[in-house]
Amino acid sequence: MPAKEIPLPPDVLEFVRNNPRTFLLSRRKDGSPTGHPMLCLIGDGHIQFSTYRKSAKVLNFQRDSTTACLVTAKHDAPAFKAALVRGHARIREGAELPTRETPETSSWVSQGVSGRSKERLASGKRIIVEIVPSEAAPLADVRKRR
Amino acid sequence: MPRESIALTRDELLAFAQGERWCIVGANDEDGGLWADAVACCVSDGTFYFRVPRETRTFANILKDDRVCCILERAPTYYEIKGATIHGRASIVINGMLVGSLIPLLERGGDPVAPGSRGSIYSLSLTDVVSFDFSKIKAKV
Fold first, then answer.
1. Residue A104 has what pLDDT?
2. What's the pLDDT tens digit per position in B51-88?
3. For residue A79, how many other CB atoms are within 10 A of its CB?
4. Among A109, B23, B44, B114, which one is most buried in terms of CB atoms within 10 A?
5. How many domains does chain B have?
């Protein structure tokens, strides 16, 4: 996998803005893949997630930062669309919840849930996981073997 | 104080998975990274199945390392979110009778990325599963 960080291509960034439903992959201790359904945010042009410091995904990333994210349309969307982002996960200590650039997320997550998330970020119970991409493209463009 | 469990029971997991037609499959890629794809899936007789088109990178990855995870998620509203990640070694289904019985189930949604695509069917036992059901959260805000 390429090691060099790239900016998210405009078409992928636009897709992520409109589709926060994300499947985040990490590796378990034995090297096998595991996955975490998440809602992503966009902060500083990166895909970000708010999650518990003690969660399995954070522990996995502290051991092996390799990741892949499949960002998809909603489960009940008439047609399936997805973007694949591969790279590494970076743990951001003390980061604030990014301004929600995903309108779908802000209309769907209640203010109560969002407020609790902010409080727990401030207390350190939650942290931000940021994706450092080295590859990103619509899934349909890269799905076939090389 | 023990953390509240919001995991699906075995029966809830089966009912949830039976209703899903697509899943996200995660695999180790030959380049050393992780790879994700979306594929057709079904449940039959308590076993989870998914179908991978042969021309895909996921198919090539599974040939080299059969350890996979399959992720299901449904989120009508925040407190109705349900999800499950099934882990294990993908085992190719070669029994013709079984394949024949699974095809109609897999064709409910067909391949999500390339409709009309066929491929190899793999099984995963529902033994190593991490799941959650947000409706079980007691302190809703």
1. 54
2. 999 999 999 999 999 999 999 999 888 889 999 999 99
3. 7
4. B23
5. 1
* pLDDT tens column, B95-127: 999 999 999 999 999 999 999 999 999 999 999
CA of A135, closest CA in chain B: separation in Å? 11
CATH code at A30?
Answer: 2.30.110.10
> Is A69 in contact with A19 (CB distance < 8 Å)?
no
A135 exposed, middle or buried (CB, 10 Å; 0-12, 13-18, 19+)?
A: middle
Interface of A with B in 61-90 (CB under 8 A): 66-70, 72, 74-76, 80, 82, 84, 86
Instruction: Note whether residue A29 is domain-resident.
Output: yes
Amino acid letter at B91? Answer: S
CB contact under 8 A, B57 and A143: yes
> Does residue A5 form part of some domain?
no
Write down the pTM of the prediction.
0.93
Scan residues 6-45 of B and list those with Cβ closer than 8 Å to A. Answer: 22, 24, 26-29, 31-38
Residue A68 is part of which domain span? 10-142
Residue A98 lies in a domain: yes
Other Cβ atoms less than 10 A from the Cβ of A4: the count is 8
Comparing alpha-carbon positions, the chain B residue that sits nearest to A3 is B33
Q: What is the ipTM of this complex?
A: 0.94
